[in-house]
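TICKET #2291
ISSUE: user wants both folds in one file
ATTACHMENT 1:
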Amino acid sequence: MADLNQSELQNLRHLIGAHETSYQKLNTYSSQAVDPQIKQVFTKAAQDSLNTKQKLMTFLND
């Protein structure tokens, strides 16, 4: 793991959780959207949140 202090680790975990929450919500919105363009916007935003979460998690694995 990278040399993170407790505050940085806590902030990192908070950010990871926030992106997971965003991913779940955006996926739900996407599944409920009727308009294909709106569905696409939500799907892309969900994927972006998931990608960011995965990038943040690499800091825990260093």
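ATTACHMENT 2:
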Amino acid sequence: MNSPATDISSSSRSDAENCPTSRIAFASFVGTAIEFYDFYIYGLAVAMVIGPLFFPHDAPAVQKLNAFLTFGLAFIARPFGSLLFGHFGDRVGRKATLVASLLVMGISTTLVGVLPSYALAGWMAPVLLCLLRLGQGIGLGGEWGGAALLAAEYAPEGKRGWFGMFPQLGPSVGFLFAVGGFMLLANVLDDAQFRAWGWRIPFLASALLVMVGLYVRLKLTETPVFAKALATHQPARLPLAQLLAHHSWPLILGALSMVVCYAMFYISTVFTLSYGVGTLGIPRSQFLGMLCIAIFFMALATPLAAIASDRYGRRPVLLVAGAAALLSGFLFAPMMDSGSPLLITIFLSLELFIMGATYAPMGALLPELFPTQVRYTGAGAAYNIGGILGASLAPYIAQKLVLHGGLAWVGGYISVAAAISLLAVFLMRETHHDNLVRRLS
């Protein structure tokens, strides 16, 4: 007689095999799109309204720096979210954990939309804002690893890069929704209305998007790779302990390989929006439109780099893209300080195209670095530790660099981030031919 665990695993395998790959691709994409929409609307709000609304009325530069610090809080929380959700994702399964991470992120984002300002609540306003920002980080920390595993563990032979690309498309689409929402508000509301209540609408709209994501996620079945692992191996009692004891080197390299992705993205979006509107005097709606154009180039690079990573390997694609990122840092000052909307749009498009090329292969690469029993924990932790290193303080540091050294220093920051990731990728082994089912610890 089969044991209950065997019966459950056999049932999961059967359901998984009947789950259309198109549904899996859409589910891995839609969740990350919604989660990153939630994440990005906060970043855009930081560049526009968070400082004056939630902090004492000191000098505008101090308010802006405080707002950028709250932006970084979520990146500090993300590795903790990846470890929390990774523990249950490696022990219980991918599906239930992905549903929980989406709920945490959605509730935190929606509540930001109803927070009182500093004028109404005093210091409670920034304290509550920071707590919800931590909640956003914890939710997103658990999201990406599960979505990437969902795609990679269902992918047909030789197409893990392509299927791993779908969660990587989520940020582009999420960003377009976020920017599009703020652009619409900028065109229908005056500045006073936007600052008084209009900025809250994108946060409240998150509740509707989360319901769509939950509907899609609840229709999923467990991945066949996890189901087979559960049938032949007991889940790791403490996935984190096993990860640190046996897979710390891939964890370090995976995290460092992500640094350039994060640094490029958040400097090219959050920092440049703040600089372009506040220093160069470009109207907010116009600069948001420029970012919308640029983000299309990130979306274009994502499938191209994914296809190339299946054909040539993850490392060659990442090495070429990383080298391009390093060189692009030297263009930052001359093109941004030109003040020309056309030249700035071209530069932002170039930066986000390169960023998309460095980002796309990660949906397959990071899961490939770890065996099944610790894959959720390992991939999520590497992804989010990379976020701390590359993005948590990127807008803040960029703002400091501008104040003390000028835009050339910000470009240098991008080049240094690229050099770190290049070294990490160079030290990695190639993984795109690995069999995920065989890689059991």
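RESOLUTION: both attachments delivered.
EXTRA DETAIL ON ATTACHMENT 2: The chain is about 80% helix and 0% strand.
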